[in-house]
Structure formats: structure tokens, C-alpha cells
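Two proteins, back to back. First:
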Amino acid sequence: MISSKLPKVGTTIFTVMSQLAAEHGAVNLGQGFPDFDVPQALMHALEQAVRNGFNQYAPMAGIPALRQAIARKTERAYGYMPDADRDITVTSGATEAIFNAVHAVVRAGDEVIVLDPAYDSYEPAIELAGGVAVHVPLTAETFAPDWQRIRDAVTPRTRMLVINTPNNPSGAIFTHDDMLALASLINDTGIWLLSDEVYEHMVYDGARHESVLRHASLRERAFVVSSFGKTYHCTGWKLGYCIAPPSLSAEFRKVHQYNVFCSFAPAQHAFAHILDAQPEHHEQLGAFYQAKRDGFREQLLTTSLFPLPVPGGYFQLVDYSAVSQLDDVEFCRWLTIEKGVTAIPLSPFYAQPPAGQRLARLCFAKNQETLDAAIERLNAL
């Protein structure tokens, strides 16, 4: 019998629930992907890149035009111009970038602090690197970081701290004060930072995305991960990037070149064009999704589900305690099979879920027709 390197890992909850949705004809608000088209200009740019013959291997770090466009976009967004040649690496989605960053610096026996609820790819990457994930819960009511608990989790073996803002699944965001606390925690230490910022352009109500890239002392110790798939509604293209200082990027690229070597070439050319030609897309993305968030929240208030605040991202947490006292996994199965709407339970995002938590995650990155169909079924609860 094979001894598994990931004995705790099975099929992800996202795959399980999407399969269940398909089997029962449910409206799938579980898995986090849009059901509307990518921007027309981006589709045309991709088609043109294919027709222009950009169909072979791209340079390992990404085509120069795209890395230069990313550098300009970063300066416009965060007031910091990374070096396009030394600091930016294009990856096959943010998940690959997260894997590369962990494997670039984490050695056997190293500890990596993960803040729960956390996206499920972090811990497997840590374990495959021989590291140990040390889970620290975010504050249960607000999902804000508890800096004293995080500080208490640091040991001489702590090699990395992973943050995710806006957070998946909660939508919580780090504030400026959080960034100051983070800097105070890791400056003058041997701790590296992995900042998962794939929902960076989905921040609402006049708030500012506090990217690590805004803070000089933090970006000197950080891998900052972004996602074209999330920003441009094309998760299936699997294209993202990582910004890190030269010493970290050099180690990151060593993993990248023997992981995938390079990423989808035609899409790289398409994004190199669109970032400069239509910056208004990512600049207006927050307003686009805030309208969806607000409308979906108003609809949910007609149901027996209570929507929690959503500062960022495109997920809506709902408290279902007025409907059921089932645990969240069983509730989401019941909701899919009996009521025809698929949600994602929150407990798989935790090492130790809070006792009695009755929360589920719904994705509002959907056409209005999809959301309307879900609400019609949820009104029957």
C-alpha cells in the first residue's frame, strides 16, 4: 500500500459540492467562479495572440511586455514600481504561485503560521515542503486578526506567515493598523511573508486595499500573489503572478521552472495589451462587485438566512441558525439536495472550526438570473 504524503487530503469541498450540485440540478453558488463572460476586448486580444502565432513556450518568468505592464499597474495601484525583470514572475494561476512561494523558503521542520479560516491549498503546500502548518484562528465574530494570538504562535522554528486579504471565505480585509502590527511582528526576524491578494480589486464602501506592496518594510520580506483569473472573470485560464524582491524571486523561479516552467503564452500577450489599454477594468471592479453584493444582500434579507458584512471579495457568508441546527457540511448537503441551492460549508477552512458555528459561503459573482433563481429557492426555506 502506498504511504500518502498528504494523508489528510481528499477531494476538495469545492469539487464535492459542485458535483452534488450537478447531480441534483441545484443553482451552484458554491464554487467561486463567475458565470458571465470575460471582457470582450480581452477575448479579442487572446484570439489575436493565437492568430499572431504566440502559441509556443513563453519565457520562464513571463513575457517581458506583461511583466512591464504589471509593474506599471502596480505603481498606479500601490505607489510602488517593482522591477519587471527581477521582481515579477508570471505563474499558472495563484495556486501555483502559493505553492512556489512556500517551497522556495520552507524547509523540513519549519513552521508556517496560517490564519483560519484559510483557503485549502496553503496547508498541503506546506506539508509537501516538509513544513508544519500552525493554525491561528481569526476573531470569530469579525474575522479580524488577533495579533496577540499570532505573536504567541511564533517560535524559533517559524519560517513564514500566510495572510489573505480580502479573505476567502469571509471577505474580511486587513486595515492599515493591521499592516503596522504585521510589520512590528516580522521585522528584524527570519520570518517570510506570503500575502495572498487575489481579491485585491474587490474592496468596498470606500475602503482601500492594504496591499503589502504599499509598505516598504513588508514587501522586502514578502511574496505577494495576484490573480488575473479573479480580476478578469477567467478562472479557467489559470494565470496569475507573484511580486517579490530579487533574492526571493530567484528562489521562487527555481521552483517555478521545474513545476510548470512557463504559463499560457497567448493569455500573457492578451493581458499585456489589456492592462495598459483598459486599466478602468480593474479600477472599476470594486464598484461592479459592490453593486452585486448590495443587491444580493437585499435579496437575502427576504429569506431566513442572515447575511454577514462583506468588506471585500465576492463571497457572502450567511448565518443559517434560524433555519437549521445541522452542522455546516450536512446543512450544505441538505440545501443542495432538498432545496436546490449549493453553498460551501465553512468548517473545511479551519483546522478546528468554532463550536456551534452555523455559517455557509455563497458566491455572488454570478449573473443576476442565477442569483434570482437561487433566491427564489431560498425563499422556500
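And the second protein:
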Amino acid sequence: MPDYKKIVYFLCTGNSCRSQMAEGWLKTLGSDRYDVKSAGLEAHGLNPRAVQVMKEAGVDISGHTSDVIDPEILNQADYVITLCGHADEHCPAISNKNAVKWHWGFDDPAKATGTEEEIMNRFRDVRDAIKSRVEKFIAEGR
């Protein structure tokens, strides 16, 4: 196994929810193979509901920070994966021609409405969908 870990950079609009969940899942499931980071076009702070539903699934993201895209990391990344349409459309130009850019679109659970239980269930749905996509990414041996 090579010493080099591929850099995966998850991007979203605010780096508060979906990109944080994706970072948490890939760090938990594939940290032996990947150097995982996440960022946003803006930094909105870590969403407490995202932290809570990830904790329910056994993944602690409470120590994550909400960060703005770092051009240096962006241009070193092997994979740049956007998780919302806004970030996909507004992602800065990537000068690293070897980087693979993908868009994994997930609904924003922070926009969910209804009772607290309905909102939390939306967060859980998105959490589980992101986990499935991350598992597929790892299984494909990227």
C-alpha cells in the first residue's frame, strides 16, 4: 500500500451540514486511504443537528470546523466533490488538471420544515444517503 493518501475535498455552500457529514463518513470509513477535508463557499458554522445525527450513527464531527475553500488544498486535491448545486455552479476554478471533480447532489436538510422530529428525520435521511454514496466511492477503489 503506498504511503500517499489521495486528498478528497468535499465542498458545499456553507460547510455546515452535508460536506461535514461526508467528511465525517469518509474519515471514519476510509481514513487509511484518504486525506479528507471539507469547506464551503462561505463558513456558516457547524450545524448542531448534523452533529447530533452523526453522533447517533457513531461518528463524532463535533470537533470539525466550518471553513472557506482553501485554494491551495483545492489545487492539491485528487477529488473535488460538491454536495449542493450552488457549490457545484460556483466552485472556484481548479488548476490541478489531474483532479477529478464530481457532483453528488443532496437536498439541504437545514432547509427542512415541520416538527422537530420531521426535521431530524430529514437530517437522518441525508446522513444515510451520504453514507451510502461514500461507501460506494470506497468500494470503487478510487
